Amino acid sequence: MATQDGSEEVIMETEAKPKEAESLGEDVEKGGAEATSHTDAGNSTTQDSNISNGDDTEDKETVDLKIIWNKNKYDLKIPVDSTGAKLKESIHSLTGLPPAMQKVMYKGLLPEDKTLREIKITNGAKIMVVGSTINDVLAVNTPKEVIQQEVKAEENKKEPLCRQKQHRKVLDKGKPDDIMPAIKGTKERLPTVPLSGMYNKSGGKVRLTFKLEQDQLWIGTKGKIIANLLLLAALHHKDADNLNFSSAERTEKVPMGSIKNIVSEPIEGHEDYHMMAFQLGPTEASQYWVYWVPAQFVDAIKDTVLGKWQYF
Predict the structure, then answer these.
(1) Torsions phi, psi for 37 (to 5 deg)
(2) How far is CA 176 from CA 130, 173, 197, 277, in A?
(3) What is the pLDDT of residues 100-144, one digit of tens each?
(4) How high is the pLDDT of residue 102?
(5) 202 CB-near residues (< 8 Å, 6+ apart)
(6) Which of 60, 226, 232, 312 has its CA 20 to 30 A from that of 43?
(7) 209 — phi, psi (to 5°)?
(8) Residue 37 and residue 4: Cα distance in Å, rounded?
(9) What is the pLDDT of residues 180-192, one digit of tens each?
(10) Spans of biased composition, class Basic and acidic residues (predicted)?
(11) Do β-strands 287-294 and 216-222 pair in parallel, antiparallel, or remain unpaired?
């Protein structure tokens, strides 16, 4: 019996050990579960942190802007503490217009180094953008070039200007005695002295002075028809040709930027001289004609007054 009891005890102990192992296994499982729980909690904390950061960005004060470029309108929402440079980047994303090609205007040219808050831009503000994409620049001619091409094509269809009756009455007076010498087939820069000795459409003497530092063309006249007196005659419905004008001198200071176009044509029989019109308004009716312009200065006059097209 004792041996049997001892055997039984051995058996019981043997059976007890798996229970302990099971207990240890449960503890391991519990420990693993707790570790997993801690890991999940850590992940949860990280996710919450990321969401919070996103909320911080969304919580930034923003302004809703209306971007106007090339006759198109775009809606843009941007943080109010963004700089002008950052705004240009956003405009680039909307329009494809590179920042370097943009002129952004809001109550004047918008500075790149100041924030929208500092500039006092508010919700609903309209931002004007001027500029051409590189493809646009390469694909089209400049407006003034187009105008000149159209004018030249139209001139080729018409009777030569010097044969038209309105110009013949001036040209038939002949070449002025005190006109500046002309050189056919050459191009020269404008002289440092005024171009003088020419006629205007009324047959009066004209002097052209190019004030480059002031970006002005000074038209000096001495003759019987003066602009203000013509206007006075028109207001009183009188014929200007029948009015008695004095021969007082007058100088008209015309901003070069206001001159829309310049037309010129050689004078038949005197191709070393040109007749030239400065278009001072939107239509040909505003052309101011000058006769006997030395041919070597024609291109220089056009380049100086109309300027070179520049991209920003």
Answers:
(1) -60, -45
(2) 48, 8, 7, 18
(3) 888 898 887 888 899 999 989 999 999 999 887 766 666 554 555
(4) 87
(5) 223, 224, 225
(6) 60
(7) -120, 125
(8) 49
(9) 999 988 999 888 8
(10) 14-32
(11) unpaired
What percent of the chain has a predicted confidence (pLDDT) above 90? 37
Q: How far apart are CA 104 and CA 256, in angstroms?
A: 25
Question: Which residues share a beta bridge with 262?
Answer: 278
> At 11, which helix (H) or strand (E)?
helix 2-58
Residue 141 to residues 109, 137, 279: CA-CA distances in angstroms?
A: 26, 8, 21
Residue 200: both structure tokens together: 């205007």
Residue 85: is its pLDDT beyond 80? Answer: yes
Q: CB 15: neighbour CB atoms within 10 A?
A: 9
| Amino acid of residue 289 | W
In terms of residues, how long is the chain? 312
Please name the residue ranges forming H helices in 63-183.
84-95, 116-119, 134-139, 143-157, 165-171
Instruction: Give residues with Cβ within 8 angstroms of 230, minimum separation 6.
Output: 240
Cα–Cα distances (Å) from 195 to 170, 198, 276, in that order, read 18, 8, 13
Contact 183, 272 (CB under 8 A): yes
According to DSSP, the residues that pair with 221 across neighbouring strands are 206, 250
Tokens 């001036």 belong to 170
Among 213, 258, 206, 250, smallest CA distance to 229 is for: 250
Instruction: Name 128's bridge partners.
Output: 68, 105
CB 177 within 8 A of CB 289: no
The answer to whether 210 and 204 are in contact (CB under 8 A) is no
| Confidence band for 208, pLDDT divided at 50, 70 and 90 | very high
With tokens 């001139």, the residue in question is 155
Whether 95 has a pLDDT exceeding 80, the answer reads: yes
Residues 6+ apart with CB under 8 A from 12: none
Distance CA 171, CA 45 (A): 94
